[in-house]
Amino acid sequence: MNAGQPARRRAVITGIGVVAPGGVGREAFWRQLTEGRTATRRVTLFDPANFRSQVAAEVDFDPVAAGLAAREIRRMDRAAQFAVVCAREALADSGLDLAAVEPERIAVGLGSAVGCTMGLEEEYVVLSDQGKDWLVDHTYGVPHLYGYMVPSTLAVEVAWAAGAEGPVSLISTGCTSGIDAVAHAVQLIEEGSADVALAGATDAPISPISAACFDAIRATTASNDDPEHASRPFDRDRAGFVLGEGSAVMVLEEKSAAEARGAHIYGEIVGSAGRSNAHHMTGLKADGREMAEAIRVALDQAGLDPTAVSYINAHGSGTKQNDRHETAAFKRSLGSHAYDIPVSSIKSMIGHSLGAIGSIEVAACALALDRQVVPPTANLHNPDPQCDLDYVPLVAREHRTDVVLTVGSGFGGFQSAMVLARPGVVAHGRS
Amino acid sequence: MPTDDSPPVITGIGVTAPTGIGVEAHWAAVLAGKSGIERISRFDPTPYPVRFAGEVSGFSAEELVPSRLIQQTDHWTHLALAASEAALADAEADPSALPEYEMAVVTSTSSGGTTFGQHEMEALYQHEPEWVGAYQSIAWFYAATTGQLSIKHKMRGPCGVLCGEQAGGLDAIGQARRLTRRGARLVLTGGTDASLCPYGLAAQLSTGKLSTVPDPARAYLPFDRAAGGYLPGEGGAILVLESAASAAERGAGRRYGSVLGYAAGFDPAPGSDRPPALRRTVLRALAEAGLTPDDIDVVFADGSGLPAEDLAEARAISAVFGPRGVPVTVPKVLTGRLYGGGAPLDVATALLALRDGVVPHTVGVDSLAPGCELDLVTEEPRTAPLRHALVLARGHGGFNSALVLGR
Fold first, then answer.
1. Which end of chain A is more exposed for a tag (fewer CB within 10 A), N or C?
2. Is pLDDT of B89 > 80?
3. Which chain A residues are within 8 Å of B132, Cβ to Cβ?
4. Does residue A3 have a pLDDT over 70?
5. ipTM rounded to 2 decimals
6. Residue ranges in A303-354 assigned as alpha helix (H)
7. Rounded Cα distance, B190 and B350, in Å
8. Do B129 and A104 make contact, defined as CB atoms within 8 angstroms?
9. Position A194 in a domain
């Protein structure tokens, strides 16, 4: 760094809130992962009898027990409820005194793939009289119906919960929304538009219309006989993803400010990049080319070599094409080192919550850095011969974890990568 | 990729709006004060208290959208596909001649593929899950437009989708500008929306913000004494935003203007006694542009048409520029509010105003509401040498965005 130049602004994670299948709250989430327990089951949120896929990873969520007020519960879609509960947990965890921060210096970067789908669908059923009326009866609409139609509502609710008056954005890039939203918030801190950001994502898509649309393209598993073992990333018997739901929201702070107040720092976000395959809305090319490029750029931003990566949190959705695509991308970007790095998919345990999962996985990475344990890939008994990396089957592993890579891949062809490091590991500013 | 801190330039504009298909058709309609608001034709609006809206009349997907994509995407995406094709042609840009990872797509939408979604939900609830088509998964979600534009134009850089209701369009352009600072050469940006289906209208009605005035010429009158809400519309604009270096390198023939500054801020939560965010957001955008209020020659206001919101915006503008201190206009009275497409269309209109040195007028407003101390340009366009324009947008829930454009 040149003398006289101010230090480059960096973003660190100082608070984590999680609502995920298997547990509400950060520690319940981490126990779920490190015990290798699956939270997939037969769908209870609606009757799945007529659907091809009847399995999901659901959150046992009681909004009252989670601390939401009656008006919040009435007003908010389930996805909004998740996000607000996470934001409050993250703020409490950070120990940040919000009164000491100018509200206009607090930003929100929240991701969601499908917004308030559940509220939108429930209201549709009423207004259309079970789909009978194309000219729906608007007089049956709840006062907050418009809030369900616009996904920006989710960011509004988190902004209100945090008293944020800086830049507030809802990022909706399908299944990479979670990583992309955190990356967006990091940008805001690095460029100086904010000092604190609530960053994360939320989705609650376990409803008939979402299930039907994934049924139609056979993306979700039809392994309905054994729901607990239905999500099988990297296994030769994998048969599609298991729809999930949940949220993670993190408190990001400008590094020097976080250090000055003596905050506990889970990790530093040292690189992120997105690339698109411009190939197909749902199809992936086998070579993993664009994901590899995103990984390469994210590591380059961090000034790190592939050999610095100590853990990869995979997208690992459990579809045939994804797990091969991604394995190819790791080899293409990291070379032979790809074989030496533990790689795992937490979707094996908590399903695929669309846009939310990327932020839940960032939270898992931050906890892996903090606890020096990497979560396993559950249900991996018979690896696909084309997926030949170390996927940490079944059992969590104590592992020296300094630098973690997390990736996402989604509809639209979007591929995202993010690199996190333990505090102090990455000494240099970005190139 | 090299970074570039000089302001990015807009080298191409594509418009699909109620005022016209194509940038010059739109501009001619705006200067003529020709409204695109008509009785809703996409469905029978008789049961609803709002029966008028801005539709993109004359839009033929068969002519303007690749046939395969017509079935796979919602009308909202059709409008963006056509606008993106026009914008690239206008810019004379050939994406196949540029580095694939240095081109990106960043769009805004407020509500995604609403009409497509209503059809598929009808199929689900009137029949069986298997009646839901394979394209629901890629047509309804908010990223559909960005994904399709990325695929169509083979743009493999860092793509994005920003949803900030009616402010999101400026946020998308602000993000596109950010990408050019981080090495992107060319970004397709802006946005469209199209929520003119019965369920989309029903959802919009729930806010109580739509105007139920039966005369379409008097229904949406921002800053007017008679303001009573707004009318909705569909469409928007897609822009080609390029780093100045890249535009120079490829010998771009046309520069509508530069994006000099951008800022976003959020209003305090309801019940707070803190001031709304618009004024400071404008000041931050000006500071980012390195300009003072005196440098701004025209303001394209958000102009929601709701008395309280109009008054708040007028006060913010007066606080920055002084009472009647700058010409203000709201050409979106001709289209209705286009949600994710509204601010990009305003940016397109502002660039044309800068190009031609003329401020378009706000048709229909004849008596400013008390407290709105604005130099609102009404009755006819006003010719003036224009150097810089400020575009404002606000979104439901508290979003505020401001963009500064230079000739």
1. C
2. yes
3. 209, 212-213, 215-216
4. no
5. 0.97
6. 320-334, 347-350
7. 14
8. no
9. yes
Nearest CA to CA, how far is B380 from chain A (Å)?
Answer: 35
| Domain that includes residue A51, residue range | 11-116+151-421
Sign of the C-alpha dihedral, residues A117, B272, A84, B168? positive
Taking 50 as the threshold, does the pLDDT of residue A1 lie above it? Answer: no
Count how many pairs of residues, chain A against chain B, have C-beta atoms within 8 Å: 264
Q: How far off is chain B from A14, nearest CA to CA, in Å?
A: 23
Q: What is the token pair recorded at A100?
A: 């000491």
Minimal CA separation from B72 to chain A, in Å: 10
Residue A258: both structure tokens together: 């976080």
**Residue A252 to residue A193: CA distance in whole angstroms:** 13
- Chain A residues with CB under 8 Å of B77 CB are none
List, by residue number, the catalytic residues of A.
175, 315, 352
The mean predicted confidence, pLDDT, of chain B is 97
Q: CA-to-CA distance for A82 and A72, rounded, in angstroms?
A: 11
Q: Please indicate if any CB of chain B lies within 8 Å of the CB of A127.
A: yes
- Amino acid type, A310: S
Residue A186 lies in a domain: yes
Neighbour count for residue B314 (Cβ, 10 Å)? 23
Sorted by where each starts, the structural domains of chain B and their CATH numbers stand as 9-249 (3.40.47.10), 260-406 (3.40.47.10)
pTM: 0.97
- Contacts with B289 (C-beta within 8 Å, 6 or more apart), sequence order: B260, B261, B388, B404, B406
Return the pLDDT at A2.
43
> Which residues of chain A make contact with B113, given a CB cutoff of 8 A?
none
Say if A387 falls within a structural domain. yes
DSSP reduced 3-state for A91 = helix
Q: In total, how many domains does chain A have?
A: 1
